[in-house]
Structure formats: structure tokens, C-alpha cells
Amino acid sequence: MGNALIVGNWKMNGLSAALGEIAAMAAARDDLWVAPPFTLIASAVTTAQSRLRIGGQDCHAKLSGAHTGCVSATMLVDAGAGFVIVGHSERRSDNGESDADVRAKAMVARAAGLDVIVCVGETEAQRDAGNVEAVVGKQLAGSLPDAVDGLVVAYEPVWAIGTGRTPTPDDVAAVHGFIRAQLVTRFGAAGQGVRILYGGSVKPENAALLLGQPNVGGALVGGASLTAASLLAIAAAAS
Ligand code: PGA
Q1: Closest ligand 1 atom to 161 CA
Q2: Where are the domains of the chain?
């Protein structure tokens, strides 16, 4: 796991005082990706001095126009972002985003030059009903862009996000193996090279075990990414 990719997702957290955490992350490592709120992207880019990759947590499916309150992929690029997360389960549930919406965002983000992290994952009820592969397979089929360049997939079981609960390592390995197989079926050999992150209650204490599973290429971290101390501890455990 020497080259695990660790991505922080700050969600709706972070005022300018939190730039000190960005500075501390950047001082310690040069391989972390962090998605602060839109309001901090430009200042985080300045603070990180190219040591971190800064990204957005969402973008609109169109590049410009009459969409009050929305942010486009080109605006993210203009602010200095290098990537964007799309299809996070909180966007899918809070904002009613469909697979088609997520795919449109992923396509426009790639066209704007951003790397894109496409999130998928089942709810607890779907897991209890034995539908993990059906649900994740449908999300992948509908949400992924047309090519693997600049694509990262994140498997985030909804019931593990912010709950302190995680799947067993075997369950993580099984779903990541399934996602890998879907990627290869869809994209051929190029699907082997797509990085698949695990997300959902990743902490310094469980990172080594979760990231040690086959086909886990890193972590998408929410709550534990808000401080440099904890994100750096996860990164250290992963490598
Ligand atoms: P969590 O969130 O690490 O706080 O569980 C992960 C995510 O939603 O990306």
C-alpha cells in the first residue's frame, strides 16, 4: 500500500481558521488530496503551495449559465482545484441526484480538466436485503464517465459514513473486487488501473486494515480529515 491515495472530504465544515490545518498537512506531506468547502478552495490552494491537491465536493453538470447558487467545474479549475468529488451519498440523498446527474457532472468535470472521484455505495437496508452488488453495479453503470482517464471510484457504504461502523475487511475486499470486475468489463484492461478508494469511518486505528485489502487503493475520509493530526496519522498508517 505504499502509494495509497488519501483524500479528505471536509463536507460543510471549515472556516478560514481551518487553513492552519491545510498548512500543517502541506508541511508534512506532498501526496494528500483535500476537498474543503467551496469558500476555502482558493485560499487553500494558496496555503498548500502545490504540496496538496485541493478539490471540490461537487460541481454543476453545466459549465455556466443561470443556475443560482451552483458552482461549475471551470470555476473550480479557475480557483486552483485539481479534482472534484461527485455522487457522494449526501448529495444523492440531500439533493436527489440520480446516477444520470452524477455521470453528467463527471463528464463535465473531466472535460474541464479535473480528476473526478465518483462515489457509490449501498444503504444498510440494501445490504441487509443482500443487494450490495445489484445496487453498486447499477450506480457504476449509470454514474461513471465514458473513459478512465482521470477517474477514481470511491466505495462508501452509506451506513458506514460518519457512524463509526465499517464493513469487515472481507466485505470491503468483496465489494472492491466486484467493482474491479465491473470496471474491467466496462473498460477492458484500462479498468485494472482505476484507483478504488474505500470511504466510511476511516480512522487512524482502522486505516491499515481497511487499506490493506485487495483492490483498495486509498481512502476517502470525512470526519477524520478535519485535522492535520488525524489525516496525517491515517496517511502514515496506510504507508
Ligand atoms: P466519514 O465520511 O469518514 O466521516 O465517515 C466519509 C465520507 O463521507 O466521505
Answers
A1: 5
A2: 5-238
